[in-house]
Structures are given as C-alpha cells and as structure tokens.
Amino acid sequence: MDAPSGLDVLAWDDVGSTSSSAFRAFKDIAFGSIAGMASKVFEHPFDLTKVRLQSQVLDSTARFSGPIDCLVQTWRNEGVRGLYRGLPAPIAGAMAENATLFLSYNELQTLFRRFNGQSSSCDLTLSQLALSGAGAGAITSFVLTPVELVKCKMQVQMLTPEASVVFPSASSLKRNSLPGPISVLTSVIRNTGFRGLWLGQTGTLIRETGGGAAWFACKEFVGIKLIRRRAKSSGLEMERKDILPWESAVAGACAGAVFNLSLFPADTVKSVMQTEEELRPRGKGIPAPTFLGTAKALYRAQGIRGLYSGCGITVARSIPSSALIFLIYDGLSGHFPS
C-alpha cells in the first residue's frame, strides 16, 4: 500500500478539523439548550414577578408593594398556573438563547486565536474573553427580543383592566383561557408587522452586550481562581477544563449576580416598552415608545429606584439559575469532550 501523500494528509486534516468544529458547535447548541431549559423552569415565577414590578413603575397606583406581595397575590389570585404564565415562550427562548450564546462565545474565541496565530488549546486573556462574551450577547439579543416580547405580554395578561373583569378569580380562570404564545405572536405581527417583534431591541442589546461581557468574564475569572487555588494546594498542574462541579456552580452564581447588576435599568426600560400596549395603550396612530423616551419617563416617575424596580428578586433568582446553567453546561462538556 502506498504511503499517503502530503495532499492526502492535508485533506484528512481538513476533514478532521471540519468534523471537530461541527461536533463542537453541536455540543454548544445541545448543552446550551439543555442548561437554558432547566434554569428557566426554575426561575420563571421570579422572572414573572420582576416583569410585573417593572411594568407598574409608570402607574399612578402600584398594584404590588414588593416582590413578596407580587408572588403572594399571583399565587392567591391565579394559582400555580399564574406563577408559570407565559412559560412556553421563555422555555423556547432559553434554549435558543443559551445555544446561540455559548455557540457564539466559543466561535468568537476561536476567531481571536486564529487572528493571534494561537493554538486551539491556548487560553485567552480575561479581556479577550469579555469581548467574546460581549459579541455573543449582542448576537443573542436579536434572537431573544421577540421571545421576551411574547413572554412579557403574557406575564401581564392578568393585570389588564379587561382581564380583571373577565377573570376576577382563579376559579374563573380555569373555565376560560387567555391568548397563548402563538396567539400573542400572531397578534403582534398582524398589528405591527414582523418589525414589531423587535420592540425593545435597544434595551435587550444593551443588556445582553454588557451583561454577556460581565457574565462570561466573571465566570471565567472566579472559575480560574478556584482552579488555581486547588492546584496550589495539591501541587498539580490544572487547566480550565479541570474545573469541578461545585467550582462551576460558584463561578456561575457570581456571574449571574454581576450580569443582572451591571445593566438592569436597560431591562426595565425594555419590559415597560413591551407591556405598554396591554397596560397603558396609546391608541391608534400614535408612534411606538422609544427607548430613550421610556427611560426618561421612568426616571421622572420614580427616579433611579424606578429603573431598578424588581432588581432584588432578579439578582436573587439569577444566582442559583446561573449556577445551574454552568453546572449543567460544564458537566456535559466534561463528559463529552471534543
């Protein structure tokens, strides 16, 4: 049998490289989807509370005095179903969001390495990881905005004047049904066109770009510190891939808190814009709210406090939720290496 020529070796290298890249992309999509779905089921009642608190900032009379009151009232008036109102949209969104986020994050890291002439195993600097996270967040924002629009509209369905008349109690809610995610989606397209699905995109873009940089950079920073601490005590050499489950969870928990604290006002503005049609309709012919105009209105209404409405419960739920995401993602990546 003839020995393989140089061209044959290059061809097999190209095939192997393509196969490895495809498998890595598949892993990012699959593992990110699983992690996102699991975290969203856990955190949805708290996210619903956050959106409802944000949506009342411009109201003359607040419906809820705080997050606990919102949770209690929702449970009392709407039951368990109320706490998970709008869940199908964020479940699909969380799968798409985390799949896009992790895929973009890792592909941008690959681009950095190629640009710098580094090997695929070479670790990037924290600033490069932050830039990769920012780019991944920016890309993901365009996937996320339509999903969050449907989710937010569904989460305030029971707060509209019409709903309080039609569904005065949880028992009547069981006998009737509010529009589901498909109905809400088609209604938006029918009334505002496909462009209307990206209402609040500016807020999502700001939140995800800055938040993505903070989320990934914080996770990597804390994770590396924990790994180095363990390596120093054991006298062994360790890499990022050697992270333990509890280290992934701790690093992810820190990242979740940093993500939501970094640019929370942008999320508040986005939520108010996306629920205005249900709670404060402007009427036909009046232009849709702008990001800057809504931000000014929120600041005039309640100042900085209004822009951070719902921040406490969001940070509280993001800590275990983000820990769960990285625990699952890192765990699956460790069991199925490239």
UniProtKB/TrEMBL annotation:
It is found in: Mitochondrion membrane. The keyword Nucleotide-binding does not apply. One of its GO terms (cellular component) is mitochondrial membrane. It comes from the Eukaryota. It is a multi-pass membrane protein. Solcar repeats lie at residues 23-111, 124-225, 243-335. SUPFAM superfamilies: Mitochondrial carrier. GO terms for molecular function: L-ornithine transmembrane transporter activity. GO terms for biological process: mitochondrial L-ornithine transmembrane transport. Keywords: Membrane, Mitochondrion, Repeat, Transmembrane, Transmembrane helix, Transport. InterPro entries: MCP_dom_sf, MCP_transmembrane, Mitochondrial_Carrier. Belongs to the mitochondrial carrier (TC 2.A.29) family. This is Mitochondrial carrier. It comes from Scleroderma citrinum Foug A.
